[in-house]
Amino acid sequence: MDMNFTGALPSFTVINPEYVAGQVHGLWEEWSSWSLCSVTCGRGTRTRSRICVLPQHGSKGCGGPEVQTKLCNIAVCPVEGQWLDWAAWSQCSVTCGSGTQQRQRRCSVSVHGWAECKGPHAETRECTNPSCGGGGNWGAWNHWSLCSKTCDSGWQRRFRMCEGTGIQGYPCDGSGEEVRSCNDKKCPAPHEICKDEYQVAMTWKRASAGETVYNKCPSNATGSASRRCLLDANGVAYWGPPSFARCVSLEYRYLHLSLREHLAKGQRTLAGEGMSQIVRSLLELMSRKNYYSGDLLFSVEILRNVTDTFKRATYIPAPDDVQKFFQIVSLMLDIENLEKWEDAHQVSPGSVLLMRVVEDFIHLIGEAQKPFQSFLVVTSNLIITIQREPVSAVSSDINFPMKGRRGMKDWARSADDKLFIPKEIFTLSSDESDDTPYFVIGAILYRTLGLIMPPPKDPFVISSKILTVTVRPLPKPTEPLVSVELAPLLNGTTDPQCVVWDYGNPEAGEENWDAESCQTLPSPAVSHTKCLCSKLSTFAVLAQKAKEP
């Protein structure tokens, strides 16, 4: 049906939603770029902003912040240092008449290793020497000539130039030449000289007694070998043994490069698995028993890096890899390596550093053990136990080594060395007890380390095995004391004395043995020395070596 409309059409009003007050937000433009840091050093801020675009008919504005701020830290701000005292004034620049002198001062280094000081570091002043007396002026002395002889007293000369003539036309006063003696030491006699010698695929060039000659390491290693010309009791020169303490075999060098590649891996598990592979490869190299003394030092560094990486990656190696780690240490401390360690200790106290690496590895393993669980390792040169005990109640006294365990080597089964720690020692302060629920207790008996370590001062020698107990966290000092019994290694020694190793001394050597922390008990039996010690540390017995007839 058609519908017809007549008259004016009705009017309609279209309402724009944006016009309804309070209903629509504005729109943000893009963020601006971040501003420069508000400071040139230290901690500052960077900002960026954006603009809210409002609709034509108004709105509530834009939701969210108009400005954002973030911290920035470009560089550590310089620390103002302190000037040290001025040095003495230099000599006058002329020998007569008016000249200048200089002096300087140094800026002291801050705890950060660098510093800036305000003010000048040098000063200049005028100086006046007596009148030149009408003569010319001397120039500066030139350098001394080479000595005319290498020994048996030669001479050197130096010169200076007279720069023009004086007011009255006279030349300079004094001499333009100086002579002095040099190289006064006596020339070595023919019997005091080591002649050219070819040994270990190297030519060692002629040298006087007391001199050291250097050569490249053999082709299978990097670094430098050295050899010293010595004098015997009759004053006749002879070559000492070559030193390879700075030689590192290419295979050990490649292994270290492989270690660095594993460290570069971002994923913790991959880094941890890589360290296990390094341990297996290092054991294979050590088992060949074909290495330089420098390889022993380098292996200590590899084991330290492996331990640190396991720790940072929170990766616990498998029991088989733990056994391999300690087997490497045992091979390194084999008595066959005694001469290599003596050579290596001329460069670094590597055996002492190895002792610290072993302790750190023990605590890495112990922290992953279950409470009351113990771990035993026995090798040809080591006995190691690791256990984890709750701080609230250590279950029993510590007796080490534990006899009758399966897998004991003959030397370990028959060892007379003993360690006894009463369980009452394991106490912490109340604050530490809340933070640390468990003790990790490690004990190590080193069969050969006492013969390998840097020796104490003459006439003393290490006359026992080395026994270490390491506990973390360290219990607070208390009674009763630690009881240690150590059997003698050397015959004919006298005056045994119980000692502990002082880890606080940064220079590892003869000064590290401390007798004050241990009491040597009188013992009728010569089969062992009994000690009562107030520290948990590394224990040994020093004795005076027998006098030669």
Q: Would you kindly provide a written description of the structure presented here, covering whatever features stand out?
A:
By secondary structure, the chain is α+β, with helices and mostly antiparallel strands. The protein contains nine helices and 31 strands. Strands 19, 20, 23, 24, 25, 27, 28 and 31 form an eight-stranded antiparallel beta sheet that branches. Strand 16 and strand 17 form a beta hairpin. The longest helix has 20 residues.
Summarize, please:
The chain is of the alpha+beta class. 19% of the residues lie in helices and 28% in strands.
Helices, strands, pairings?
Elements lengths: L26 E2 L14 E7 L2 E2 L13 E7 L23 E8 L17 E8 L7 E2 L15 E6 L2 E2 L13 E6 L10 E2 L2 E3 L2 E3 L2 E2 L3 E5 L4 E11 L5 E3 L7 E3 H14 L4 H20 L5 H20 L6 H14 L5 H7 L5 H17 L7 E5 L3 E9 L7 E3 L9 H4 L4 E4 L8 H6 L2 E9 L2 H4 L7 E3 L3 E7 L9 E5 L7 E8 L11 E2 L3 E4 L7 E5 L4 E7 L5
Antiparallel strand pairs: 1-3, 2-4, 5-6, 7-9, 8-10, 11-14, 12-13, 15-16, 16-17, 16-18, 19-20, 20-23, 21-22, 22-26, 23-25, 24-31, 25-31, 26-30, 27-28, 27-31, 29-30
Helix pairs in contact: 1-2, 1-3, 2-3, 2-4, 3-5, 3-6
Q: Helical proportion? A: 10-25%
Q: How much strand? A: 25-35%
Runs in which pLDDT lies below 50 for 5 or more consecutive residues are: 1-22
Tertiary shape: extended
Beta strands, count: 31
Averaged pLDDT, please?
A: 82
- In DSSP terms (H or I, runs of 4 or more residues), the helix count works out at 9
Distance linking N and C termini: 145 Å
Radius of gyration: 39 Å
Reported for the largest beta sheet, the result is: 8 strands, antiparallel
Structural class: alpha+beta
InterPro entries: AGRL2-4_GAIN_subdom_A (IPR032471), Angio_Inhib/Adhesion_GPCR (IPR051867), GAIN_B (IPR057244), GAIN_dom_sf (IPR046338), GPCR_2_brain_angio_inhib (IPR008077), GPCR_2_extracell_dom_sf (IPR036445), GPCR_2_extracellular_dom (IPR001879), GPS (IPR000203)
Domain GAIN-B: 390-549
Protein name: Adhesion G protein-coupled receptor B2
Keywords: Disulfide bond, Membrane, Phosphoprotein, Secreted, Signal, Transmembrane, Transmembrane helix
